[in-house]
Amino acid sequence: MLTNQVSIFVPMLVIVALTFAAFLKMGAARGAAVKGGHDPNYYKAHLGTPEPEPTVAAVRHYGNLFELPTLFYAACLTAFVLGVVSTWVLVFAWGYVAARVVQSAVHVTYNNPGHRGGAFVLGVLFMLALWVTLGVAILGKL
């Protein structure tokens, strides 16, 4: 069942907001590291004493938002362009967003790799389901 095609952009906006929040978190973590005594010259070429663990986690978290989420953005745009934003597409998109938000929350708080990994795998499964759904829709349009 098709739905309002523009609604696919709402989960995209959540991931975009999450990315900007991660950017702010990374900046705050780096600022705190320098204020706490980390050599500010490290940031010229990232050479020297490594950043403290919380800063590295914030930097990795921000970087991760430019990996699998790129497939999410592509899927959402594909669904919109083809006019195939259905209830299932939205369920899988929102499922991915929920898993990504949980993964991010774990990453920037207590950073348990098992919990973070579980959320990541769940997100991958939602992404796979989203792309299979889109693949079927694409093949149906041929």
TrEMBL record:
- Give its localization: Membrane
Pfam families hit by this protein? MAPEG
**Organism superkingdom:** Bacteria
**Residue stretches spanning the membrane:** 6-24, 70-97, 117-139
Keywords from UniProt, A to Z, are: Membrane, Transmembrane, Transmembrane helix
Q: Which coarse location class describes where this protein primarily resides? A: membrane
Descriptive protein name: MAPEG family protein
Question: Which organism encodes this protein?
Answer: Novosphingobium anseongense
Task: Read off the lineage from the record.
Answer: Bacteria, Pseudomonadati, Pseudomonadota, Alphaproteobacteria, Sphingomonadales
